[in-house]
Amino acid sequence: MEWSDLRVFLAIARTGTLGAAARSSGQSQPTMGRRLQALEQALGQTLFQRTREGFVLTDEGMAVLAHAERMEEEVHGLERKLSGRDGLLEGMLRLSSSDWFGAHVLAPVLAEFAQLQPRVIVELLTSATHFSLPRREADMVFRIQPFDEPEVVSRKLMHMDYGVYLHAAHEAPQAGDGSGTSLITMDTAFGGMPDALWLKKMLPNAQIVSRSNNRDVQARMCALGAGIAVLPRPLGDALAGVRLLDLGEMPPGRDTWVGYHRDLRRQARLRALLDLVVARLGS
Predict the structure, then answer these.
(1) Closest among 94, 201, 73 to 142, alpha carbons compared
(2) How far is the C-alpha of 47 from the C-alpha of 63, rounded, in Å?
């Protein structure tokens, strides 16, 4: 087993396909395939399941991944020490969050981190899909529900306040009624979220005119005068052309949790990013 073959393995595990791994490492796709085959033969294990969607780690591959990442961290540390760059980290981190949280809350922190650690590539995937930490689909995940997987180390990061917003030129509705008022709310799959239920309770006679699972879409519709929307305060307060309404009580906020796989708890680049995230956003 050679370290160069493990680097090929890491590239495939992180990108999910031979083609993407080849592009990220500057090698040809056939070469990547041969190196992976040589590694699997040397170990006597199948490390990936080949699917139409790409390469998925097997249980044996998951075990190899944890050790390979620790080896990578040691190699990078040695390279930094020998070159006099011991304060700089290297490698890639894959993050997952909701779309609005990534754009409006994480982006400023990631921009700061890029200045501090320019050799760490941070890949942020914004999606309603839950990326799995146990399956190592992401290195760090931000979400509004606690983590219950035994392989995951997690903590509550912050409490997010929400507000009710309306186009600045429109008349505010009467709490407890809402007749003649248009609502912009979550799509039916997320209709049971606390803010969506609260909005219907506060304005029971209002008419839903738009549904979306994307908070930025809701914010844009609100700014264009389509109706009232409940939005996270960092998103709504920065929105031009709208005003914050007082309906007698504030909509329910949400807690945000951050988690990562326990095998990464000593990884220097993940710890550096986590420390910055907690320092800037933690409450």
Answers:
(1) 94
(2) 9
What does the pLDDT look like over 136-174, one tens digit per residue? 889 999 999 999 998 899 999 999 999 999 999 999 999
**83 token code pair:** 């070159």
Structure-token match 């031979």, residue found:
18
58 secondary structure, DSSP code: -
Neighbours of 157 (CB within 10 A): 20
- Within a 10 A sphere around the Cβ of 270, how many other Cβ atoms? 22
Which of 151, 136, 149 is CA-nearest to residue 9? Answer: 136
Q: Mind listing the pLDDT tens digit for each residue in 222-244? A: 999 999 999 999 999 999 999 99
Give the tokens for residue 18: 């031979």
CB within 8 Å of 18: residues ≥ 6 apart: 12, 29, 32, 33, 36, 55
